[in-house]
Each structure stands twice: as C-alpha cells, then as structure tokens.
Design goal:
The chain has 13 helices and 13 strands. With 409 residues, the chain is α/β, with parallel strands linked by helices.
C-alpha cells in the first residue's frame, strides 16, 4: 500500500488507516484481532484508537479497545504507526475529562500502559474543550513531545476558527503544533470542504477523516424503517447519535442514487464511498471501521483503484446539498444557481443604474457584491420586466472608492 506524509511532517502513514472503536463491544477480542490481521495483510500500518473506546460503552468499558490493540501489538510495535486520543470522561472525578494539563498528563500515561508501549506516534484531542485555555492544552502537549512520550499531536472534531487560533498560538509561543485533523467527512457530510479542509491544505495539516461509510449507511446494506440490531445505529449510548446523523429519508434517497452510480460503474458501494473520500487532495488517510474482517475487503480496494474523474463529478453533483451553509459573502451559492440567466438593475446610493447578470455567470465585482449584500440584508427585489429586478442597495459609498479598486466577494 502507498504511504504518504502526514501533513508537512516527515512521518509517513499508509493511505488507509484502521479505526478500532468497534473493538471490545461491537466485536469481541478474537474478532478484533482478526480485523487487525486482515488490515495488516492489506498493507495498513496506521492504527487509530482512543482512551474512551469502545463505541457505545461507558465508564465500565473505558480503555478496553486500547488494551486489545496493545496485546495485538506486542512484538511488532515498530511495524505500526499508532494514534490515540484523549478528552472524554475516563473516571468519576470532575477532572477526569477535558483538555486540562491534569487530565492530559494522566490520560497519556494510562494509554501508554494499556497499549503496552513507551511512546505514542500521534496523540490527538478527541474534541475541543471551551473551558480550558488553548495555551494550557498546548503547553501540556508540548511537554509530552519534549519528554518523548508523544511524537506528533493532532485534533479531532475541531471548528476551523479554533484550529486556526491554536496554530497561531503555537507559532507565537513556540509550542508544539497540531499536525493533523480528524474530521467527520463522507459523501453525506461535506461541510468540512467549506473551511476545515481548506485550512488544512493551506497550513500543511494531514487529514484523517472518520466515518467515510457514514456508520455503514454508504455500504447500501441498510433499509428504511427500524435500524437493525448489531449495528452502530442500535449500539448502546451511540445509537441515538448515529441515528440523528444519518437515519433520515434524505440520506436514504441519496444512498439509493449513489447505489445506482456504483452499479453502473461495477464498484461495490463501500469501495466507492472510501475512494471518493480519498479523492479529495487534502485527505491523507481515511479511517476504516469494521465489525468483521471480511468487511475490509471492499474498502481496502479503494486505495488500489482511484475514482474515475467523471464518476467523481457525478457524485459531487449528487451530494452537493450536503456541503451545508456556504460562505456568506462568496456566496449565496444556491442563490447564484437559482438566479442563473437573470439580470438585475442595480441602483446604488449615487442613483446610478446598471444591469448585471445574476447567477454563476455574473461578474465578481462591486455591482454583484452590492446585490448580494442587499439580498442578505433583506432588501426587496422587485421585478421590473422579465429577467430583471430593481434593488435598492444599502452598501456604503466607500465601496465605490476608486482607490480601493474592485471588491471581490
């Protein structure tokens, strides 16, 4: 299997990563080790886990997954890149969760013990912690890197502005820097494309997306109605979360359309979904999950067979609605589509009128920016004749200053 650099670091990881959150609850240790064996046979050398796994468990099962992975790693630790995470509740005390120095230092030692290793290749914050200053968190992680317990650090489920703030703080304070992001990203969850993936590409962060199969929905095996037992949609305390994410008519309608594309291309749906995730240039290594070894057969093939460009464009168009809210000024992406082919008469505060086309064909200039801003401000749009509209803008006259030049949305 191909190995690629994790962001701008010198660390190389396999193009696919094995996720382990099913180990210890959804599947027993024997099955878990069989899954690890199958992934290893397929060339996967990158393993991701977390101190709170298995998924769907509680305090009584916390750490069980790391223990299973640790027993499997004995005698072959150097052959794998091991990633784990901290942040979730691991004990009964108030300080047994979060990204405080106290919790991070205690959590990493427990993970090292369970994984039966003296270092962790990639240590990640499972989620953000608004109650702990980022500088405190970064200084704790910086200390772990300096003493050799951790090689690299990353984050999961961070908002773009918080990740950007952390990167700036690391640079300003000369502290360890986050080298990767683990977002939820798949054909049914495309919001990360709007900001997070762009930020990672610009700043040189690796991207290791989880849920590339949308909890199994993108395998095409599920039908509408009651979720089947033995899946993430009925698994302990995770069931409600996964149903809220994916178990909706809109998602099922889209899966039906994706299934038709897969059948026409002669590709299993699971392979298709993972290959689509891999096709984004910012993505380093999608995280594959499984509850049986044979489930990896299709997903492992995604690394061997890049997605056909025409098929990718079809899937992009089919799932465009799952990109969520677009950037406000740049867009109004849906509005631009709705206004395709129309023209507008724009009158600014100086009383000047100008006809400009609307929609994707429209110019990215002052006039269009004023029009968009007026739409966002709730200004009335009055059709004066077919294909045109008159809009009173509320844009400051400073936008029209010759010294500022054209304003691009």
């Amino acid at each position: 299997m191909e190995h690629v650099r994790l962001g701008r670091t010198g660390l190389k990881v396999s193009r696919l990563c094995l996720g382990t959150m099913t180990f210890g609850l959804q599947c027993d240790e024997e099955t878990s080790q069989a899954i690890l064996d199958r992934a290893s046979e397929g060339g996967v050398t990158f393993i991701d886990t977390a101190d709170v796994y298995p998924l769907g468990g509680g305090l009584a099962t916390t750490g069980r997954t790391e223990e299973i992975v640790g027993r499997w790693l004995e005698g072959r630790r150097h052959d794998y890149v091991v990633a784990t995470k901290c942040r979730g509740r691991t004990g009964r005390h108030a300080w047994d969760e979060g990204n405080s120095r106290k919790h991070i230092v205690a959590a990493v030692d427990e993970s090292l013990r369970r994984l039966r290793t003296d270092y962790i290749d990639l240590y990640q914050l499972h989620r953000d912690d608004d109650e702990t200053p980022l500088e405190e968190t970064l200084r704790a992680l910086d200390d772990l890197v300096r003493v050799g317990k951790v090689r690299y650090v990353g984050v999961s489920n961070f908002r773009a502005y918080r990740l950007a703030t952390a990167l700036g703080l690391s640079a300003a304070k000369n502290l360890v820097r986050f080298d990767c992001l683990q977002p939820r990203y798949n054909l049914l969850v495309r919001e990360p494309e709007n900001e997070l993936l762009r930020l990672c590409a610009d700043e040189g962060l690796g991207v290791i997306p989880y849920n590339p199969l949308a909890g199994g929905l993108l395998t095409g095996k599920h039908e509408r109605g009651e979720p089947p037992q033995g899946t993430r949609f009925t698994l302990g305390n995770a069931a409600a979360n996964y149903q809220e994410r994916y178990w909706h008519d809109r998602e099922f309608d889209t899966v039906d359309a994706i299934r038709a594309c897969a059948e026409q291309a002669g590709i299993p749906m699971a392979q298709l979904a993972v290959a689509w995730t891999l096709s984004h240039p910012a993505v380093t290594s999608p995280i594959l999950g499984a509850s049986r070894p044979e489930q990896l057969d299709d997903t492992l093939r995604a690394a061997e067979s890049p997605l056909d460009p025409d098929l990718k464009r079809t899937l992009d168009d089919l799932t465009e609605g799952f990109r969520g809210r677009q950037q406000v000024i740049s867009g109004v992406g849906r509005r631009r589509q709705a206004l395709r082919g129309r023209a507008a008469q724009v009158r600014d505060r100086r009383g000047e009128h100008r006809a400009i086309p609307l929609g994707p064909a429209g110019p990215r200039n002052q006039g269009l920016l004023k029009l968009r801003l007026s739409l966002l401000d709730g200004q009335p749009v009055q059709a004066t004749k077919p294909g045109s509209a008159t809009i009173e803008t509320a844009v400051p006259s400073s936008l029209n200053s010759p010294s500022t030049g054209p304003v691009k949305p």
